Records
---
Amino acid sequence: MAESPQVVERKDDSVLVTEAKAGSYAAFEELVNRYENKIYRLGLNLTGNPEDAEDMLQEAFLKAFLHLPDFREDARFYTWLVRIAINEGLMKLRKQRADKSVPIEETVSEDGEALPREFSDWRPDPEEQYKQAEIEKILQQAAQSLPPGFRTVFLLRDVEELSTRETAELLGLTEGAVKARLFRARLQLREELSKVFKRG
Amino acid sequence: MKCNSCLQQISSYLDGEIDAELKRTLEEHLRGCHHCEVIFDSTKKTIELYCDGELFQLPTATRDRLHAALRRHWQEKAG
């Protein structure tokens, strides 16, 4: 008799949250498995170094574990987790800045000039032209060239896919300020990466 | 549409937040202006690179430390 293929059911996050709240470590661990990589990536791009990224990762999941009973599920689990993680990451950044006596919120104007200077086409498929570690380094360095307040908006909106409103609420900004920072951040990152990826 | 106006709208265009008429004008400009087309394409590619799931993989040792710490806290809580 032919065996039917085994189908592993992928549970919704909300189901796993309910099970974890009821005491299932396996359910909580599955949530960790789903998002640990994304939170680590967020940490690397936000803080710029693996040690702070690991601290942010651990603190974020530890706090998620401790505060899970208080999670009211009016947002997606991942959005809630990103909120916790970004707050941890911002604390790391403040500490980094305090060590260097530089305030986290530089007085960078949101409506200042952001005119592109690089107009060359990019070589196709940078992912295939460079080793993975090289690309990661290039992206991290470009992210670090942004003021932290702009970098955070870019990461939340474009990488973590939070809405403009969610990002504004989380960072205590107006939606207009989020859009202005996102615009500036995208153009500046593009400018930085163009220096590396342009043809010729 | 002039290049500067196009540039100001590129971010909103990427987010699908411009109206149909402006979208049509902007796309027409992009077809005829190589500089703006390059800026649009490379901005889009910039975002795609940061979202590439193959990059920034969690190192195994970091993952192991995370899971060990969480398991320890879970067990302590469970008594």
---
Amino acid sequence: MSSEPRMLEVRKNVLKQNDLIARSLRDRYRQAGVLVVSLVSSPGSGKTVFLEKTLTTLRSKYRVAALVGDLATENDAARLARSRAPVKQILTGAVCHLEAAMVQTALEGWNLNELDFLFIENVGNLVCPSSYDLGEDLRFVLLSVTEGEDKPLKYPTIFNSADVAVITKLDLAAAVEFDEEAACANIQAVRPGMEVFKLSAKTGVGMPEYVQFLESRLDRSRSAATA
Amino acid sequence: MHELSIAMSIVEMAQEEAERHGRAQVHAVHLKLGRLSGVVKEALLSSYEMACESTALEGSQLLIEEIPVEVFCPECRVARMVQSIQWFCCPECGTPTPTVLHGKELEVVALELKQ
């Protein structure tokens, strides 16, 4: 005679392991006073150029570094090395997103106290990275004008999980008849109140406002840490 | 497609829990899955079957309770279900709100065990 199944209460987050590592990373970032920004977007949205310009611009005043996630090839790290900032590639193999443990491993041997900004470029993917906390202070979601205004509605989860939206490749907006107003309305629909920057890393349009934002966030997080 | 690695974590977690409770056989795993968790139910169910293969959980069931997205309306000052995850606003008064109370769950709630 088979006995009736009994219920055992568990109540455990499936991503608990990732969240624990993310939490310890967050503590390390805070102690070191480094502002950590992660970038998520579809493949080809201009993340790497955007990051290269960011690193080059900030490098004159700040100590900056980057981790870049990709399934394969070290091309992005090689491109970013042109900014002369320390850059490390994280090759994820078949994995379609970065996890906190990968970031932790990549940071081995790095002294975070020697940094003001650390950027983490996630694998180009608008689905999987949304579930994984990397301990970052800010998550940026990038949307290029060539992708269409309705991207936020197609991928609401990742847009909702991000803190800031960046509309990239603004120099191509006229050529693709990009409807900026509609794009912004869609971003606000899936994440009300989200800060949005519109820029072109190629021409530099909109970059100063965005850099100013990063600087103010660094100041803010450092004064919060010492308060 | 990260559902397979999520499914493997679920299987691992269930195995550990079952072992701590007298190596009971897991009959079913109850999971809460938020609409904003970034995990697709159908993909998770098929991944679960794969993840169970050749483990003590082979043949067990994954029972998913989908959790709708609940936000806090700052105007009505109460929790409300959003009507669409493409529109984060109060369904009653229309006020936009970014405050998500529920819908991000990815949680093993309980196991059904057989001795």
---
Amino acid sequence: MIRQPDPKPEVLARQAEIVAALRAIVPPHPVSGESVIADPLRLKPYETDGLSAYRQPPLAVVLPFTTAQVAAVLRYCHANGVRVVPRGAGTSLSGGALPMADSVVLGLMRMNRILTVDFDNRLAVVEAGVTNIAITKAVEERGFFYAPDPSSQLACMIGGNVMMNSGGAHCLKYGVTANNLLGLTFVTMEGEVIRLGGGHLDAAGYDWLGLITGSEGQLGVVTEVTVRILRGPEGARAMLAAFDSVEAAGRAVDAIIGSGIIPVALEFMDRPCIHACEAFAHAGYPLDAEAMLIIEVEGSAAEQDELLARIRDICAPLHPTSMRIAESAEQSAAIWKGRKGAFGAVGRISPDYLCMDGTIPTSELPGVLARIGEMSRRYGLAVANVFHAGDGNLHPLIMFDANDPDSLRRAEAFGAEILRLCVEVGGCLTGEHGVGVEKRDLMGVQFTARELDQQRAIKSAFDPAWLLNPAKVFPLPQAAE
Amino acid sequence: MSALLLPAAEAGVAAVVAEAFATGEPLAIEGAGTKRAMLRPVQAARTLSTRALSGITLYRPKELVISARAGTPLAEVEAALAAEGQMLIAEPPSARLWGGGAPTLGGVVAANLSGPRRISGGAMRDHVLGVRFVNGQGEVLRSGGRVLKNVTGLDLCKLLAGSHGTLGVLTEITLKVLPRPETAATLVIRVADAAAGVRVLSAGLGSPYGVSGAAVVPDGPDGPVALLRIEDFRSFVAYRVERLRADLAAFGDSRIADAEETAALWAAIRDGGPLAARPDEAVWRVSVKPTEGPGVLAALGEAGLRGYLDWGGGLVWLAGCATEAAHAAVMAASASGSFTLLRAPDALRAAVPAIPEEPPPLAALSRRVKAAFDPKGVLNPGRMRAGF
């Protein structure tokens, strides 16, 4: 179990008083019911997030409806020295929403209104608890969409996407959350409401929007977001190319990018992942291949034909074991079906898995996968690799059994060794899932003590008492760096 | 003129800043100094330039990544990219507006200056993958890295981009780059006025054809025109620009500008060319919602300024007399968005806010974050705002 700071006994002792104060700020709602939860059974859903190996019930949960209520909650907690853990849908894979025993979870799921859709200015203003997919649903009638598409997009909320700077399979072309924002309303730990940006593209002055995006709840709580919406292309189509070696697939990725084509998505799966996905989704994946690419292009039907034909010709000299170009939207969906279900597919063949998230320079892929294979044998744990190949973001899924403490311990050590390797070859600890609690104590692998101190000084500028989402992102003071 | 310090290595930059930190004597920070007439004048006895820190340190075309020392001329970076059929995505402006010269990569990033492709490709800061910099205590630090996707720790790259050397001195920058489109074409549509022009741009940007530039020039030789650029593979451009022309036919007569004319048109729009600003005039950029652009232009026209629109209508370029009255009019007209005093004589720049004032809670954060990087205020004091 991850090491956490000791809860403050004086806060634990005041639970009843704190709950009463929060109830005064956010009264029960006639339809949604109570807005402050303190009953141990009803706290259960809030004790963990997408990183379910770690669990800790909070002191209480508060579910505000308005920015003013969020500000009042934070003001109260600041004045009373109470730690606060902001939470969207709780889909974080890095434990970004893991509570502490003396913390109040500030859940934003009831702030779920879409406030404005403005097609002429290509923007939407939404509250933090609106799901990622709901934004696209709100604008798709006119052919528009919100670009970042994390795998959890049916559940995850835009406020959480902003806090983690979420990516997705299509960010090779459209960028990550930070590249698709125009404005934010955020509340500091001291309860100050700050509005940033709006409908304009560039704001002179320090780039607060860029700093806060991806700050993992360390600097403030986002309550409202202005996102860019984009008109979608005429159409999109996928192809699949399978190879008898990881190296050949890697060379195909290089050759495609080198030709000047930037596919909208370029996904890589290794043999264990292909087998797991095929058993789960029956997508018709080639079981004889060592590595497989899913490549998606956009444009008119003729443009799709031309791009897919060029990619086929680029792959041909690398002797693919098979290639399949989708002839229709349905066939594209079939090709994507296995990939989109990859995490679930691995969940079916293993009781538990840890999803890692390092990024590497793409040229390092063959060497890195060979070393992950060697680690897999050494730790005695299976691993399946799925990879956003265009941008180097690797997702090794380490399979283990959470009921066996030794298996969990080995899985954590295996994961940490993979992340150290990512940094060693010129990459980073996390491409899109965030540091959270999971990678907190590895930060010293990527950053020097002074670099971490510079980041800590910024945290202190926003949250001098370090009450907001504590024990995340930065190594605990005692931990070796 | 202040004494110029030109360290040839990052350690030299760190030593200069460490000494300034020790003595508390401020430093003006610049690259090639081409944008000295931008924002506010800095009062410092010594100027630290990064222009001697030059050279591309890593370029991996197939990974879409380039790294260069901060003082590397922008032109050198662009030439290296062009040799591999690639480009800087944000299309940063040249130094033409400030009288020419060879801007450095560090200067362009520190100013976060983006060109017409901002609407489709993002801002300069969006493509900064990693930086090395020296903070106000003389410490050499890094943020980000050299991979395309990285959310490890706080994103200081974006904070430093656009901080005009007030938080740290950039020493090396790693950028995401993209393949240069095979060709480009522009649909030129005659419109009644700027408001009609922005309606055309909104329709074009709401089309599925991937518009990468959208501007309105209200006083061109043929009267007001709306311009929509398409960049891609040759066959795609031909198809898309024709489709766009057909879809937008109801908005006015149009013609198609070829690749050569397109390059010239958008270089001018990128650099403030249509303003034809005289050396004694001030130049501003105002960023608002695209549909508000024509209103800003009209209001400031009454105040004696002239201008044109880029970024779908949301970027208003303005030129006119360098007076406090004109500046006050710009500030008033851009209240819903943001403004930058891009160029003016020293007297005006020293007298007015060059960028919008922040509301009190944000101003307090600015001061605290500035102190977190530069506790003694030695880096470019007064460059962005009076006092720090």
